[in-house]
Specification:
Distance between the termini: 50 Å
Largest sheet: none
Shape: globular
Strand content: under 5%
């Protein structure tokens, strides 16, 4: 059960120019827990919140709130997941020079958009005398404060739009997890007979034929269904801890391998074909999509004034990891790099265990990513059914949603294309398109610098172009898989 918000409406200060709409998509007890691999346990605190009388937003955290170090760890966790493993292929799609430079630019823009979201949320917290607003609330309130009457009358669609993209993003993560698990387990099982203890002289081995990757997805389906039946957040936090440990160990081993015996990079193109660059954009923006976790983390802090510094430090670490693994992975494996760098690791027991460890982490993270769409969709159906069937309806909807993600994964079994499609469609909207427009609608009536307006317009245009081109190219690759540059189901390891 989620904690009820202390008040659903409060008196709006006199300087508010426009009447706030009372329309809501759903009850305001929902909290935005969107992330790349974040635990929903970090729900916003609703304790002692205060506002300064000087005209600026100020909130004081409770004594049992998270410290700056805990917030930093959660911020890193919310941005590091399967997207990180796909960045070497993304660098290949952009070029060994253009890829890292583009990753750096996208990282800077993504952090700036996160800061915009926090600033606008603080603005409405002070203006509406609320202790906390989530992503959907912030977008809705900004439209209600717009000088354009049509936007004010349809402000509730702003929240619905954010909910839609959150559902697409999180269920997209779940689809990617099915593909990731199937690819990695298929490779480990096929290479089992040729797996050795020698990790320094790896050669391509004769594979033992096994099931198609789609059958592996169906094998995981009943276990995923049982996993999402765990609805208690504290129980899910145990899975989150286990996932973090296994994924951290795996990343250390992956870095340790990629820095060794890097071949001559002179044959790698500095700039790749423009036709593959949109695939890079989709994968890159997918990896940086942790914007939905920013507001819950800030609200949970013991000392929220330090959040801006933590945001910049944390995202600098994330960007450094993304750029370094993208470069090292592409340098090491070259044109043979696959949709996940784990698929390129050698067939010795040490690195086969790395694949299994990361897969275990991804398996348990599925329930955490599933939590967000479940909390948006399930109440809609439960409210329309008989009260005595509430549990049956809840579990039935969960089962249907898991089956839906499995079916979508079966229809799109290429890991690189699933990541690029989710990144282009929903991550670009949440991370690049909406925040700059949010800043304009929030502050335009109060006066904005023309430079700021131009800057926000350019960021939104960049996100929209990436959204359209990336989506179209990914769909084209899906229609014509024979022209794809990478065959993800190939399981040979190259060194």
């Amino acid at each position: 059960m989620l904690i009820k918000e202390e008040e659903k409406s409060k008196k709006i200060p006199q300087f508010t120019k426009f009447t706030m709409s009372t329309q809501r998509l759903r009850d305001e007890d929902y909290r935005d827990y969107s992330s790349t691999d974040a635990s929903p346990e970090e729900s916003p605190s609703e304790g002692l919140n205060n506002f300064s009388s000087s005209g600026s937003y100020m909130r004081f955290g409770e004594s049992n709130s998270t410290t700056w170090f805990q917030t930093l760890i959660h911020l890193l966790k919310s941005n590091i997941g399967t997207g990180l493993l796909g960045l070497p292929l993304a660098v290949k799609n952009a070029g060994i020079l253009m890829g890292p430079l583009s990753l750096l630019v996208i990282g800077l823009v993504a952090v700036h958009c996160m800061r915009i979201l926090v600033k606008c949320a603080h603005h409405f917290c002070y203006r509406l005398n609320k202790p906390f607003v989530d992503y959907g609330d912030t977008v809705m309130y900004s439209l209600e404060a717009s000088p354009i009457s049509w936007l004010r009358n349809h402000a509730h669609w702003g929240r619905r739009m954010v909910d839609f993209f959150l559902i697409v993003t999180q269920l997209g993560f779940c689809c990617i997890y099915f593909v990731f698990l199937a690819d990695n387990f298929k490779q480990v099982i096929e290479m089992a007979n040729g797996t050795t203890n020698n990790c320094h002289n790896n050669e391509t081995v004769i594979l033992t034929p096994t099931m198609d990757s789609r059958l592996y997805m169906l094998t995981f389906l009943p276990f995923m269904v049982l996993l999402v039946f765990v609805r208690n957040l504290r129980a899910l936090s145990i899975f989150s801890l286990l996932a973090n440990i296994t994924m951290a160990v795996s990343l250390v081993m992956i870095y340790q391998f990629t820095v060794q015996n890097i071949p001559d990079p002179s044959h790698l193109p500095l700039v790749a074909s423009w036709k593959t660059y949109p695939l890079f954009f989709g994968t890159a923006i997918f990896a940086f999509e942790g914007i939905g976790m920013v507001l819950p983390l800030e609200n949970k802090m013991k000392d929220p004034k330090k959040f801006s510094l933590i945001l910049y430090v944390g995202m600098a670490i994330v960007t450094a990891l993304y750029v370094s693994l993208g470069i090292l992975g592409y340098l090491h494996f070259g044109a043979n790099i696959q949709g996940s760098i784990t698929l390129n690791l050698p067939n010795c027991w040490l690195y086969q265990s790395v694949k299994l460890l990361y897969s275990v982490g991804i398996f348990f993270t599925y329930a955490l990513q599933f939590y967000v769409p479940a909390e948006i969709i399930i109440p809609f159906f439960v409210a329309r059914g008989p009260e005595h069937c509430e549990l049956v309806i809840d579990l039935s909807v969960r089962t249907v949603l898991v089956c839906l993600t499995c079916i979508l994964a079966i229809l799109i079994p290429r890991l690189d294309l699933v990541i690029s499609l989710v990144g282009s469609v929903s991550s670009s909207a949440l991370a690049l398109i909406i925040p700059p427009l949010l800043e304009i609608t929030t502050y335009y009536s109060e006066g904005m610098s023309p430079i700021t307006i131009v800057k926000d317009a350019l960021i939104s245009i960049l996100g929209f172009v990436g959204f359209v081109v990336g989506t179209c190219l990914t769909l084209y690759e899906l229609i014509q898989p024979s022209s794809a540059p990478i065959f993800i189901n190939s399981t040979s390891a190259f060194v």
